[in-house]
Amino acid sequence: MAGGGKKEKGEGLGRALIRQRNKDAAAAKERGNALASARRRAQPLESVIEVSDIDAVLQRAAEADRFHSALADAASVSSSDLVIDLDATGETDDERRRLQKEQEALHASSLRVPRRPPWNARMTVEELDENERRAFLVWRRNLARLEENDKLVLTPFEKNIDIWRQLWRVLERSDLLVMVVDARDPLFYRCPDLEDYAKEIDEHKRTLLLVNKADLLPLNIRKKWADYFKARDILYVFWSAKVATVTLEGKTLSGYSEEDSVSIDLDTKIYGRDELLMRLQTEAECIVAQRRASVTKEDHRASSSDSVSSVAKHVVVGFVGYPNVGKSSTINALVGSKKTGVTHTPGKTKHFQTLIISEELTLCDCPGLVFPSFSSSRHEMVSCGVLPIDRMTKHREAIQVVADRVPRNVLQQIYNITLPRPKAYESQSRPPAAAELLRAYCASRGHVSHAGLPDETRAARQILKDYIDGKIPHFELPPVTADAEMEHEETSGLEGPTTSAPDESDGSNSDKHDDTADPAQPDIRHVLSDLQSFDLATGGSKAAGKKKDASHKQHRKPQRKKDRSWRVGNDGGDGTAM
Questions:
Q1: Which backbone phi and psi does 542 adopt, to 5 degrees?
Q2: pLDDT for 173-198, tens place per residue?
Q3: Confidence (pLDDT) at 83
Q4: Confidence band for 505, pLDDT divided at 50, 70 and 90
Q5: CB atoms within 10 A of CB 454
Q6: Helix (H, G, I), strand (E, B), or coil: what is residue 372?
Q7: Of 105, 186, 537, 543, which alpha carbon lies 20 to 30 A from 551's?
C-alpha cells in the first residue's frame, strides 16, 4: 500500500508539471488571440499624416506616458539642449536658403526610416509589440527634435506604426525591392535611406527603381535621366502601367508611339509586361544566388552550382513607394487582372498583399508611405498627389506650384482660356498667379459658388487632377542638367550688361568715384530707372498733371490774418450796455 501510494504521488507530480506547462501555453495563446482580436475590433487601418484630431493627440500622450520611465534619461538630455534664440537676424532670402541647405545636409543622417527592433521566434506577442512601439516612439522623438529647429522645415510623414509594420514585413520577405517612382520627378519620390535599410537587413538585397509613367516623358528627357542613373550606379527600368494595361486589353493609347517600347536602346526603352516580369525574376534570382553562394562558401556544405539550382526555384519581389505613384496599377498589369484596388485618392491599399505570378515568382504589394524629408512642402506634396486633394485647405498655394512649373502659353492652350498679362511695372516673364488662373478657369467653365463668386475650390481640384494624371505636361530635369542650364543663364545674363556698358560710360566719372569711395552706399540708379519706366507706361500727361498740382500746393496764396479787435475785452465791468 505504501509503495503504491508513493507511485501515485510521483505520477501526480509529473502530471501536475505537464498540466502547468499546458496551462501556461494556453494562457499565452489566449493573450495572443485577445491582442489579435483587439486589433481586429479596432478602427480600420488608415494612414495618419498629420496629428490634428484630438483623439490622435491623446493617443500620442498616452504612448509617451507609457514609455516615459524607459526614456526619462533621453528626455532629460534633450531638454537640456533646448536653446531659445530671441535675437532677430536680418537675413536675406538667399542667405536663409543657404543656411537651410547647410542644416539639411548636417541633419540628413537623422532623417531615417524607422527600423524594426531585433526579434526572434521565442518572443511573445506582447514583448514584440512593446519593443516595436518603444522603438517607434524613439524615432518620433528624434524627428520632433528636428522640428524644433527653426532653420529646418520637415514635411508631413506617416505617423501610424501599423503602416510601417507592413513595410517591415515586405522588406523582410522580399528578395528584390522595387521602388516605384513617378517619371516626371523621380528624385522627389525616391528614398535613399530605404535602400540603406534594405542593405542592413540583407547585404545582398538590391533596390530597383521602377520609373513609372515614362510615357509622359520625351525621349531626350529619358536619355538625360538614364545618364544620371548610370553615373550613380542606380538600377532602373522605364515602365508605364497605363500603357501595359491598355495593351493587355487589346487597345491603343492615344498619343503614345510604339517606337518607345520597340526601341533598340535598352537604357531609354519602356519595358512591356513580359519583359519586366523577366527582368524582375532575373534580378531576384541573381540576388538569391549570391546569398546562397556566400552562405555555402562559409559553411562548405554544398557547391555553388547546386545552391544556385536549388534556390532559384522561388523568388519574392516587393513593391514599395509613395502613395499614388502606381504600385497597385503595376501589380494589376503584371498579374493580368484586377487584384488590388486602384483609385486617384492616395492610400487605397491598407495591407500588404502577396500575389503568386508563377511557381518561380511572387509579388508583394506594400501600402504607400509618406517618408519624412526636407526637400518639399505640403503644397508641393498635394500637387504631386502624395497627399489627398480632397482634404486640402489652402488651394491657392497648391495651384501656385502648378502655375510656377507649367508655362503660361501651355495652360492657355490646354484649357482654352486667356490669362491676364502682367502689368507694365511687373516682370513680363513672371508666372501667372494662382488667383488669375483659378478665376480664368471658373469664368470659362461657369463655376460659380452659392454666393455668386468664382468657385475656386472646385476649379483647383480639377486642375490638380489634370496635373497629376498627365493632362498638363510637365517634368523635372536631373540636377546636373539643371545646374548646367543655370550656369548657361548666368553666363547669358553676364553678357547683357557688357553690351550696354558703353551707353553708361557717356556720363561723368564722378559716379564711379563715388561708388568706389563708399561701397556701402545704396545704388539708386535701378530705382530711378524703374520709376522712369513706370512713368512711361502710365503716361506722361498724368505725371505732368501731378507735378502741376504739387507745385500749386507748394506756392499757396498767403491768407490774411483775421481781425478780431471788435471783441470786447475783460475790463472788469458787469456787462451792461453803455
A1: -65, -40
A2: 999 999 999 999 999 999 999 999 99
A3: 39
A4: very low
A5: 20
A6: coil
A7: 537
* Contact assessment for residue 280 and residue 361, using Cβ atoms and an 8 Å cutoff: yes
Phi, psi of 271 (to 5 degrees): -70, 150
Backbone angles phi, psi at 94, to 5 degrees: -65, -40
- Take residue 201 and report the three cell numbers written for it: 537587413
Task: Specify whether the CB–CB gap between 113 and 65 falls below 8 A.
Answer: no
CA atoms within 13 A on the CB side of 231: 10
Answer whether 139's CB lies under 8 Å from 114's CB.
Answer: yes
pTM for this one? Answer: 0.67
Q: What is the DSSP string of 95-139?
A: HHHHHHHHHHHHTGGG--PPPPPP--TTS-HHHHHHHHHHHHHHH
End-to-end C-alpha distance for the chain, whole angstroms: 155
Handedness of CA 260, 264, 265, 267 (dihedral sign): positive
- Classify residue 233 by burial, with Cβ atoms within 10 Å: 0-12, 13-18, 19+: exposed
Residue partners of 48: CB distance under 8 A and separation at least 6: 56, 158, 159, 160, 163
- Per-residue pLDDT band for 58 (boundaries 50, 70, 90) equals low
Q: How far is CA 90 from CA 5, 93, 94, 149, in A?
A: 95, 10, 12, 18
Give residue-wise pLDDT tens across range 95-130: 777 777 777 777 777 788 999 999 888 888 888 999
Q: How far apart are the C-alpha atoms of 117 and 128, rounded to whole Å?
A: 9
**What angle is formed at CA 574 by the lines to CA 569 and CA 578, rounded to 5 degrees?**
75
Query: At how many degrees (to 10) do helices 54-66 and 125-147 cross?
Result: 110
Mean pLDDT, to the nearest integer, of 19-43? 80
Residue 185: closest CA among 219, 223, 216, 231: 216
Cell numbers at residue 45, please?
487601418
Q: Which residues, other chains included, contact 548 with Cβ-Cβ below 8 Å and sequence gap of 6+?
A: none
Do 521 and 514 contact (CB within 8 A), yes or no? Answer: yes
CA 175/CA 9 separation, integer angstroms: 56
Greatest distance between any 2 Cα atoms in the chain: 155
What torsion, rounded to 10 degrees, do the Cα atoms 567, 568, 569, 571 define?
A: 180
**For every residue of 222-278, which 3-state class applies, written as one string?**
HHHHHHHHHHCCCCEEEECHHHHHHHHCCCCCCCCCCCCCCCCCCCCCEECHHHHHH
Q: Which of 378, 362, 359 is nearest to 370 (CA)?
A: 378
